[in-house]
Write a structure and sequence with these properties.
The chain has 197 residues and is mainly α. 57% of the residues lie in helices and 3% in strands. The chain has a two-stranded antiparallel ribbon. The N and C termini lie far apart (52 Å).
Length: 197
């Protein structure tokens, strides 16, 4: 016969998760979880750096390339693609009105953030190469979403001024989780964090 366990030790073991179950819950389908390629903080930093480099004349240059930018945005299918195109439409409307001098009440910080998101979409050099099917445009959608989120106050002012219902207002609250598939990122659209998303 085996020896009897002490009453305190038996209770402590009852609360533990077996090692095999703990190992299985730490991995997905038996494989280790892939590290995230980007953090939200890295994307925010890239958007702000690009916004700081843009001059007011660059907005006009982006508007000249509007049709090619829209063609690139049309390549992303599904919900991320629809969200990207809606955010791009709103950003381009705002940038056009700004370039024409019709909406001076929108802070230039918001204009430069939107221009940074559009410029990233127009640029061929990305975090993830665009030639990868379905995967290549996800980073463009992420950058545009972050740019719209950072410039949200200006966009909301623009929508009120224009008398249109803000697509951002119909969206989930500011810090809601926005999953982005394909293993690149899946995290919050909220304040910058250093955790992997």
């Amino acid at each position: 016969m085996g020896r009897a366990a002490k009453p305190g030790r038996a209770r402590a073991r009852a609360g533990r998760v077996p090692r095999r179950a703990a190992r299985r819950s730490a991995t997905r389908r038996g494989k280790p979880a892939a590290p995230a390629l980007l953090t939200r903080a890295e994307v925010v930093q890239a958007v702000v750096e690009l916004a700081n480099k843009l001059a007011p004349a660059d907005v006009g240059d982006l508007l000249v390339a509007e049709s090619s930018i829209r063609e690139r945005a049309a390549k992303l299918p599904g919900v991320p693609g629809r969200r990207l195109r809606a955010q791009l439409d709103l950003a381009l409307f705002c940038l056009k009105d700004h370039a024409a001098g019709r909406c001076p009440q929108i802070p230039y910080f918001a204009i430069s953030l939107l221009a940074a998101g559009v410029a990233y979409l127009a640029d061929q050099l990305d975090f993830v190469p665009d030639f990868l099917p379905r995967l290549g445009m996800i980073d463009d959608a992420l950058v545009m979403a972050v740019a719209c989120d950072l410039g949200r106050d200006g966009l909301e002012r623009y929508c009120v001024w224009k008398g249109i219902a803000s697509a951002l207002a119909r969206r989930a609250p500011r810090h809601a989780a926005v999953p982005v598939r394909y293993g690149i990122v899946s995290g919050e659209v909220g304040p910058p964090s250093t955790e992997k998303v």
